[in-house]
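Re-running DUF2953 family protein to confirm reproducibility after the cluster update. Everything else is unchanged from the original entry.
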Amino acid sequence: MLHVILLILKIVGIILASAAGLVVLAALAILLVPLRYQAKGKAVEKDAAVSARLCWLFRILTVRADFVRQKLVLRVKILGITFYDSSRPPKQKKSRKRERYPEETPVLAAVESPEADTAAQEEQMENRCEEAVLSDFPIAEQKEKRRKKPGFFRWLYWKARKAVQKIKKWYDKIKTFLQSLLEKGKSWKERICAWAETGRRVKELLNSDRFRRAWRKLKTEIMRLWKHIRPRKLDIRAHIGLDDPELMGKITAAAGMLYPLYTDHVVLLPEFEQQVMEVEFSLKGRIRTGTLLLAALRLFFDKDIKDMIRDFRKATEEVSYGKG
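Result of re-run:
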């Protein structure tokens, strides 16, 4: 009995160890296996064609994007099987509609019953009675034929009363407008004072030693990330020409001054007699998830950067309070 229990525990332990090993292996693959990207394209005058691809772990995952004739096509493949293709038309779901039988024509509309005839006759009699009553007692005769015109003083009193009411309404509107304008002026004054105080605090933070140390560390991490994610291979071939030889000469001189920056990666073919625009490029590179995560952790746990973010939040509290 004990031997069976130990055997079961051994099997369970092997299964758990295998599962843990697979999890660790998957985590290491995600962190250490780089995402490789490459792109190439060509542009002639107003026409352009660009193709980009991103693959991971021996192309187990592949994402490809093609931009041709002003149209973008995106494809996602896993283990060589296409899971998404934007060029495919969406599948139409089969609609299962129930068959509707033609409605039967009502029989009651064709057959006239005696009860319906009697009801219609009664309704006609009531309408005739109402017309007779209205003709005997018209509405115009119920009103007074002539109204007595008010006197001059009474007319003058009503006019003066209406004028006083209008003046009171205009006075209330002007008073409300001035009060709202005064309140807005006070709120804007408070906001401007808060902004000035915030600007003074931000200026003090920018001139502090803590900000300089944090900015130095942040700049170092940005340069490290750029060196990691920048293309390992970059080739650009540009055939450019203008109708103005003088302007083309200036562009060529400027490109020659920047030659130490791009060295052999860019080839410029100038044309001084006709207008031409042809550009071809190709690039390749890689991005490792572990490197990005390590840089993010270094920035997250850095004390100077944390203190700088906290100080900037405190400095901007006055602006948010003034807006509120």
